[in-house]
Amino acid sequence: MKxxxxxxxxxxxxxxxxxxxxxxxxxxxxxxxxxIRKGQVAGLDIxxxxxxxxxxxxxxxxxxxxxxxxxYDYILDLHPKRIIFNPGTENPELEKLAQQRGIExxxxxTLVMLSVGQY
Length: 119
Known about the structure:
- There is one protein chain.
- The chain is α/β, with parallel strands linked by helices.
- The protein has a single domain, classed as Rossmann fold, CATH 3.40.50.720.
- It contains four helices and seven strands; from the N terminus they run βαββββαβαβα.
- The chain has helices at about 15-25, 70-75, 90-100, 110-115, and strands at about 5, 30-35, 40, 45, 60, 80-85, 105.
- Strands 2-1-5-6-7 form a five-stranded parallel β-sheet, with helices on both faces. A two-stranded antiparallel ribbon has the order 3-4.
- The longest helix has 11 residues, at about 15-25.
- The chain starts with a strand and ends with a helix.
- About 30% of the residues are buried.
């Protein structure tokens, strides 16, 4: 299964990041939730620091492009295999930086990918 860091994690059930964390866990993926505020989602503590996470396969973004620059180094230094830009998080600058480091990028919806078996 794919270890996934969810950037923009929240304990608000109305948010897509909340639903994605639940769905990732239900599909057997290890999840590292990182958000602005501490909390809990799907039995996991939301980290509001920049945890060192080894073996991250995927970073799935739920942070808008205007708030991403402060996270660039953290995301890229994780050396994930891919970054998923969920709707509303598309960012050509970060995509280019990632691709220059050999990181695959996808503009897609994590929830849809999981539901159709394309994750």
